[in-house]
Amino acid sequence: CGFRKNRGGRPAGRAAPPPGRLSQRRPRLPAAGMAAEDEAELSLLECRVCFEPYGPGGERRPRNLPCGHVLCRGCVGALSGPERRRVECPFCRRACGSAETSDCLPLLQLLEVLGPAADSVPSALGRSGGGEAAGPGPAGLGLRLSLGGWGSLVNPTGVAACQRSGRLVVAHDGKKRIHVFGPSGTCLQRFGERGDAGNDIKYPLDVTVTSDGHVVVTDGGDRAVKAFDFDGRGVLAVREGFCLPWGLDATPQGDVILSDSEAGALYRLTADFKNGKLKKCQMIRSQLTSPRGLAVSQTLGAVAVIEHLKAQGPNSSSTRVKIFSAEMDLVGQMDSFGLNLVSPSKIYTTAVAFDKEGRVIVTDVSSQAVICLGKPEEFPIFNPLISHRLSYPVGLTYTANNSLVVLDSGDHSIKIYSST
């Protein structure tokens, strides 16, 4: 499934320092007068693998991978092996050739501007709060707001919208794993400490918000599902023998549908989140192939899930979108091969959502686009909704006012589109 434990016990989807370099890590001290929040943002100037600060040249020079993640030149070399031919991103597992990496110009420019004045990092970054972005996209969608960015979000993996309050919740790799934005883009709350305590979050993979206002997270680090209120208090941790809980979404009734990538199964969780009690954990579908991204239609109760099919050769991995009715009967499916018949390029889907009319919307990281596949009975339809200004889209959701929210891991941001 692409996420397994190595001999050191660390999930392979989580970055580990190259051998022999861990002892080089130096403690990071906040500058005088710097708030803890500002000090945490300085981590964007460090390689997320070896935790060494970036520099303008040599081994510390920041390099972009094709997937959008950034490592220092030394870690790119260490991860590519002695022959330096192939690099596998330690965050998203996408493989590339060493020659495909490039200098991270925004970071290099930021280092040049800041020089030794590290205190100016937060103001130089421009905090989340997002600015209006110009220009409508295809199909009448315009980019209305962009949130997050360097330092605010780190390698985000999941996004969800609270239908009642309009808040957006993002799971990412920061010191506090859950970031809550208000409808206007302001940061309302950060919680979910990185650590080993019962309610800490080791490695979040996806997030959803239930109808009663609880934030539910899949934690691949300790194979659990964890629920919090919007104040960040942990209310429930479910460890029902999951192999690797990955994608999840809330049903209109307040249950949670969950995919287990390693077990190849879907589960339904019924819980009294307010009182921290699990009522039922039921497997509702099995014999799937590495199911990950998942969405529930809020009008029909249908469930869409993305399967990641096993590669039959180099660079031949593909995905398949399956649609189930509310009763979990298979009503439609489309794989990469079938989509290639109606699309100009190979499609590799990472996230899925339903719009208000029940159409299936997916992200495609190959073409860096968001695509409408139509209703299940209409497959195959290929209608690009957004085909520019995206780097590595990994998450999708709709707000109550039908705005489309795209999580872009490539530039660590949330992009909100609405009809123009």
Automatic annotation (TrEMBL):
Residues 1-33 are annotated as: Disordered. SUPFAM superfamilies: NHL repeat, RING/U-box. GO terms for biological process: proteasome-mediated ubiquitin-dependent protein catabolic process; protein polyubiquitination. Pfam families: NHL, zf-RING_5. InterPro entries: 6-blade_b-propeller_TolB-like, NHL_repeat, TRIM-NHL_E3_ligases, Znf_RING, Znf_RING/FYVE/PHD, Znf_RING_CS. Keywords: Ligase, Metal-binding, Repeat, Zinc, Zinc-finger. Residues 47-93 form the RING-type domain. GO terms for molecular function: ligase activity; ubiquitin protein ligase activity; zinc ion binding. It comes from the Eukaryota. Its EC number is 2.3.2.27. It catalyses: S-ubiquitinyl-[E2 ubiquitin-conjugating enzyme]-L-cysteine + [acceptor protein]-L-lysine = [E2 ubiquitin-conjugating enzyme]-L-cysteine + N(6)-ubiquitinyl-[acceptor protein]-L-lysine. This is RING-type E3 ubiquitin transferase. It comes from Columbina picui.
